[in-house]
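Anyone able to model this chain together with zinc ion?
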Amino acid sequence: MLTFTQRLFGKTPSKETSDQRSEPDHYLLREVEKSDLIHKDQIDFVIQHLNNEIDLNKTGNKLTAEEKKELGINPRLQITHELLAVLNENARAQYDPKSVLSSIVMKANFARSHDENIQNYRSMGLKQYEVVGCKDDRNCTWCKSMDGKKLSVSQSINELIEENCNCDSHCRFVTVAVLT
Ligand SMILES: [Zn+2]
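re: yes, here you go
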């Protein structure tokens, strides 16, 4: 384990050990904690990985073609045992287990930007915002039904997404200000 950590930190610039030791972004932390695909005792590792403090996929300990085949993982995917170790059985059974982590990052980024935007609409004195969805088949039924809806600036879109959205990786809504 020592060599593993040494190797990881040996590659990163020294500033990262001090500067980036700040509190993890709470949107990211929330998504990681909410995920039912990550081992709960590995959350710290996952946060460090997603904050680029360590890279669990650059340990050199890659799964062999045989191991990937056995697990049903995309044979072309570069994935390490250390990355796989933070994921539970359900995540490991996916064709692309790495997508579990990218999906968490996307959810956190969207949630953060929704809050920031709605906060801006409020400070501009606006009363409503409009939900704009992507016009493709990747949207879940709820997302399709929400496209074009106008909501009060007091309504958190994140709450609605959390309760209703079943999109595969993450909800891709954007919001726009309603000026009239
Ligand atoms: Zn959805």
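The CA atoms of residues 114 and 157 lie 7 Å apart.
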